[in-house]
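Hi,

I'm pasting everything inline rather than attaching a file, because the server keeps stripping attachments. The sequence lines come first, and each chain or strand is labelled.
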Amino acid sequence: MSQESTGSRRTYFIVYAALVALTVVTVLVSYVNLGLMNVVVALAIASVKASLVALFFMHLKSEDRLVWGFALVPLAFLALIIGGTLLDTMLR
Amino acid sequence: MTGHVEERTDPRVAFEAAKLGVWAFLATEVLLFGALFTAYTVFRIQYPQLFYEQHLKLNRILGTVNTLVLISSSLLVALGVNAIRRGKTRFMVICYGATVLLGAVFLCVKYVEWTEEFHKGLYPGTNIFFSLYFMMTGLHGIHVLAGMCVLAYVAVLAHRGRFSESYYTPVELSGLYWHFVDLVWIYLLPLLYLIG
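And the predicted assembly:
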């Protein structure tokens, strides 16, 4: 009965407002030169936005452990692929 | 024999199983795009200067507009799923129809961008940044197109009265896919347009 617990329309509109605000912020920040911090800030904001979409729009917040596993394991594999490839290309 | 099993399958269990199927599919999608994200990371570290110079040639405004278009479409899908759970088919059809339209808007903006870039002599073969740019936005564009087809089909079925508050599996699952397409773009915007 997890279905009913997420997804009030009010929550959706709040999440939407946050997504729009974060988009505006990340674009504005990109016009300021912060050096390497630009990359960090942009990816941090993108990750917050992605989490909001997954947790609320995709209802991950109210899902059980199995679905969480299905959502997180591919991300772990992606980290492994990127990390492993970088180990090769950077140390070659 | 299969029919016998289906008869006894609890609809809740069937829904959960179908949902896991979609999450498993999305896992493969993460890794499909993941290969390109990996290539991006490797080459960006190797050629930081080139990536910086080239990314300035992209149209940041249009990229941002398209982000807002996709985020809005995701909200509509969420509202559509919420509507069908309350048995409000008509509103769900409107939400999904509007999402398909926003998907079309997204692709039109993308078309304008690509045309602009071709006019500037920027092609997939120009340099490694534009190879990745066209490959990543192209693959994402195909996903948008596929999502539009699926959502349109679900909307037509809903219009014919196939879904209700007690059965709306395809509505929810096609929505999951659309949110995923939105998720990918959320990363493409900063990687390609903002930080190059």
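Chain B has a mean pLDDT of 95.

If the labels don't parse on your end, tell me and I'll reformat.
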